[in-house]
Amino acid sequence: MKIEIDHKDFELMITHEQVKKRLRLIGIQLNVVYENRVPIFIGVLNGCFMFLADLMKQIHIASEVCFVKLASYEGENRRDEIIQLIGLNHDLKGREVIIVEDIVDTGNTLRRMLDLVKALEPASVAICTLLLKPDALAYQFEELAYVGFEIENQFVVGYGLDYNGLGRNLKDIYRAV
Ligand SMILES: O=P(O)(O)OC[C@H]1O[C@H](OP(=O)(O)OP(=O)(O)O)[C@H](O)[C@@H]1O
Ligand code: HPA
User: Fold this and answer.
1) What is the ipTM, given to two decimal places?
2) Are 97 and 39 in contact (CB under 8 A)?
3) Which fold, 19-69+84-151?
4) 50 CB near ligand 1 (under 6 Å)
Protein backbone atom coordinates (compact mmCIF):
# COMPACT_ATOMS: atom_id res chain seq x y z
CA MET A 1 0.00 0.00 0.00
CA LYS A 2 1.29 3.47 -0.92
CA ILE A 3 0.56 6.77 0.78
CA GLU A 4 1.64 10.37 0.27
CA ILE A 5 2.75 12.66 3.08
CA ASP A 6 3.67 16.27 2.37
CA HIS A 7 4.27 15.48 -1.34
CA LYS A 8 6.51 12.48 -0.58
CA ASP A 9 5.61 8.86 -1.39
CA PHE A 10 5.83 6.06 1.16
CA GLU A 11 5.05 2.35 1.01
CA LEU A 12 3.96 -0.03 3.74
CA MET A 13 6.90 -1.65 5.52
CA ILE A 14 5.80 -3.02 8.93
CA THR A 15 2.15 -3.56 9.85
CA HIS A 16 0.69 -2.78 13.24
CA GLU A 17 0.03 -6.53 13.66
CA GLN A 18 3.75 -7.26 13.18
CA VAL A 19 4.63 -4.55 15.71
CA LYS A 20 2.18 -5.94 18.26
CA LYS A 21 3.58 -9.46 17.84
CA ARG A 22 7.13 -8.21 18.36
CA LEU A 23 6.09 -6.17 21.40
CA ARG A 24 4.60 -9.24 23.04
CA LEU A 25 7.96 -11.00 22.76
CA ILE A 26 9.95 -8.03 24.03
CA GLY A 27 7.46 -7.71 26.89
CA ILE A 28 8.01 -11.35 27.89
CA GLN A 29 11.77 -10.79 27.93
CA LEU A 30 11.52 -7.61 30.01
CA ASN A 31 9.11 -9.21 32.50
CA VAL A 32 11.63 -11.98 33.12
CA VAL A 33 14.82 -9.91 33.21
CA TYR A 34 13.40 -7.13 35.40
CA GLU A 35 11.23 -9.16 37.80
CA ASN A 36 11.61 -7.72 41.34
CA ARG A 37 13.88 -4.92 40.05
CA VAL A 38 11.18 -2.21 39.66
CA PRO A 39 12.68 -0.68 36.50
CA ILE A 40 11.92 2.80 35.29
CA PHE A 41 11.07 3.17 31.59
CA ILE A 42 12.17 6.52 30.18
CA GLY A 43 10.62 7.40 26.84
CA VAL A 44 12.37 9.95 24.63
CA LEU A 45 9.74 12.27 23.17
CA ASN A 46 8.17 12.85 20.76
CA GLY A 47 8.58 9.77 18.62
CA CYS A 48 8.30 7.11 21.35
CA PHE A 49 4.78 7.92 22.53
CA MET A 50 2.94 5.15 20.66
CA PHE A 51 5.61 2.51 21.10
CA LEU A 52 5.98 3.10 24.83
CA ALA A 53 2.20 3.13 25.35
CA ASP A 54 1.82 -0.24 23.60
CA LEU A 55 4.96 -1.70 25.20
CA MET A 56 3.74 -0.90 28.71
CA LYS A 57 0.58 -2.94 28.09
CA GLN A 58 2.89 -5.98 27.86
CA ILE A 59 4.74 -5.21 31.11
CA HIS A 60 3.23 -6.99 34.09
CA ILE A 61 5.92 -6.42 36.72
CA ALA A 62 6.17 -3.45 39.11
CA SER A 63 7.66 -0.58 37.11
CA GLU A 64 7.55 3.18 36.59
CA VAL A 65 7.30 5.25 33.43
CA CYS A 66 8.31 8.76 32.53
CA PHE A 67 8.91 10.79 29.40
CA VAL A 68 11.76 13.17 28.69
CA LYS A 69 12.73 15.49 25.91
CA LEU A 70 16.23 16.36 24.81
CA ALA A 71 16.70 20.07 24.27
CA SER A 72 19.76 21.79 22.90
CA TYR A 73 20.84 25.39 23.02
CA GLU A 74 24.03 27.19 22.08
CA GLY A 75 26.42 28.26 24.80
CA GLU A 76 28.36 31.52 24.80
CA ASN A 77 30.76 30.05 22.33
CA ARG A 78 28.48 29.43 19.36
CA ARG A 79 30.05 26.05 18.72
CA ASP A 80 29.19 24.71 22.19
CA GLU A 81 25.93 22.85 21.94
CA ILE A 82 24.56 22.26 25.43
CA ILE A 83 22.12 19.38 25.74
CA GLN A 84 19.56 19.25 28.52
CA LEU A 85 17.17 16.59 29.69
CA ILE A 86 13.72 18.09 30.23
CA GLY A 87 10.88 16.50 32.18
CA LEU A 88 12.73 14.00 34.34
CA ASN A 89 11.09 14.07 37.74
CA HIS A 90 12.62 10.89 39.19
CA ASP A 91 15.85 10.37 41.09
CA LEU A 92 17.67 7.76 38.96
CA LYS A 93 20.42 7.03 41.49
CA GLY A 94 20.57 3.27 42.01
CA ARG A 95 17.61 2.64 39.67
CA GLU A 96 17.31 0.13 36.82
CA VAL A 97 16.71 2.33 33.77
CA ILE A 98 15.32 1.31 30.39
CA ILE A 99 15.57 4.06 27.77
CA VAL A 100 12.80 3.69 25.18
CA GLU A 101 13.24 5.05 21.65
CA ASP A 102 11.14 4.74 18.52
CA ILE A 103 14.25 4.64 16.34
CA VAL A 104 18.02 4.58 16.66
CA ASP A 105 19.38 5.93 13.38
CA THR A 106 22.83 7.57 13.57
CA GLY A 107 22.81 7.03 17.33
CA ASN A 108 23.55 10.70 18.08
CA THR A 109 20.42 11.18 20.17
CA LEU A 110 21.05 8.02 22.13
CA ARG A 111 24.71 8.93 22.74
CA ARG A 112 23.62 12.20 24.35
CA MET A 113 20.77 10.58 26.24
CA LEU A 114 23.09 7.91 27.65
CA ASP A 115 25.66 10.48 28.79
CA LEU A 116 22.98 12.47 30.61
CA VAL A 117 21.32 9.43 32.21
CA LYS A 118 24.58 7.78 33.29
CA ALA A 119 25.66 11.00 35.02
CA LEU A 120 22.68 10.47 37.35
CA GLU A 121 24.22 7.21 38.64
CA PRO A 122 21.58 4.58 37.85
CA ALA A 123 22.30 0.96 38.84
CA SER A 124 21.93 -0.11 35.20
CA VAL A 125 20.89 1.28 31.83
CA ALA A 126 19.44 -0.70 28.92
CA ILE A 127 18.02 0.56 25.65
CA CYS A 128 14.81 -0.61 24.08
CA THR A 129 14.17 0.66 20.56
CA LEU A 130 11.44 -0.29 18.14
CA LEU A 131 13.61 0.32 15.07
CA LEU A 132 17.35 0.22 14.48
CA LYS A 133 19.23 1.17 11.31
CA PRO A 134 22.50 -0.78 11.71
CA ASP A 135 24.02 0.70 8.54
CA ALA A 136 23.48 4.27 9.74
CA LEU A 137 24.76 3.75 13.28
CA ALA A 138 27.87 5.79 14.07
CA TYR A 139 28.57 4.19 17.48
CA GLN A 140 28.44 0.81 19.18
CA PHE A 141 26.12 0.63 22.16
CA GLU A 142 26.56 -2.30 24.52
CA GLU A 143 23.33 -1.15 26.22
CA LEU A 144 21.26 -1.85 23.05
CA ALA A 145 19.53 -4.92 24.46
CA TYR A 146 15.97 -4.83 23.06
CA VAL A 147 15.41 -4.11 19.36
CA GLY A 148 12.06 -4.52 17.65
CA PHE A 149 13.18 -4.52 14.02
CA GLU A 150 16.48 -3.92 12.25
CA ILE A 151 15.73 -1.99 9.08
CA GLU A 152 17.62 -0.70 6.05
CA ASN A 153 18.93 2.81 5.90
CA GLN A 154 15.71 4.31 4.52
CA PHE A 155 13.55 7.08 5.94
CA VAL A 156 10.50 5.71 7.76
CA VAL A 157 7.30 7.23 9.05
CA GLY A 158 4.29 6.21 11.14
CA TYR A 159 3.63 4.76 14.61
CA GLY A 160 5.08 7.86 16.28
CA LEU A 161 7.68 8.66 13.63
CA ASP A 162 7.16 11.81 11.57
CA TYR A 163 7.99 13.29 8.20
CA ASN A 164 7.99 17.09 8.51
CA GLY A 165 5.85 16.74 11.61
CA LEU A 166 3.25 14.60 9.87
CA GLY A 167 2.42 10.89 9.94
CA ARG A 168 2.98 10.16 13.64
CA ASN A 169 -0.65 9.03 13.92
CA LEU A 170 -0.33 6.21 11.37
CA LYS A 171 -0.77 2.74 12.91
CA ASP A 172 1.59 1.03 10.48
CA ILE A 173 5.18 1.94 9.56
CA TYR A 174 5.98 3.11 6.03
CA ARG A 175 9.28 3.64 4.16
CA ALA A 176 10.12 6.33 1.64
CA VAL A 177 10.08 5.19 -2.00
O1 LIG B 1 19.80 8.17 16.02
P2 LIG B 1 19.47 9.56 15.57
O3 LIG B 1 20.05 9.86 14.20
O4 LIG B 1 19.85 10.60 16.58
O5 LIG B 1 17.90 9.62 15.33
C6 LIG B 1 16.98 9.11 16.25
C7 LIG B 1 16.17 10.18 16.91
O8 LIG B 1 15.53 10.97 15.91
C9 LIG B 1 14.15 11.08 16.23
O10 LIG B 1 13.91 12.15 17.08
P11 LIG B 1 13.79 13.66 16.60
O12 LIG B 1 15.00 14.41 17.10
O13 LIG B 1 13.51 13.71 15.13
O14 LIG B 1 12.57 14.18 17.44
P15 LIG B 1 11.08 13.60 17.52
O16 LIG B 1 11.15 12.34 18.36
O17 LIG B 1 10.34 14.68 18.18
O18 LIG B 1 10.61 13.30 16.12
C19 LIG B 1 13.84 9.78 16.95
O20 LIG B 1 12.68 9.89 17.76
C21 LIG B 1 15.08 9.53 17.75
O22 LIG B 1 15.02 10.13 19.03
O1 HPA C 1 13.82 7.36 9.46
C2 HPA C 1 13.39 8.22 10.27
N3 HPA C 1 12.09 8.64 10.27
C4 HPA C 1 11.60 9.57 11.13
N5 HPA C 1 12.35 10.14 12.07
C6 HPA C 1 13.65 9.76 12.16
N7 HPA C 1 14.59 10.18 13.03
C8 HPA C 1 15.70 9.53 12.72
N9 HPA C 1 15.51 8.69 11.67
C10 HPA C 1 14.21 8.82 11.31
Assistant:
1) 0.98
2) yes
3) Rossmann fold (3.40.50)
4) no
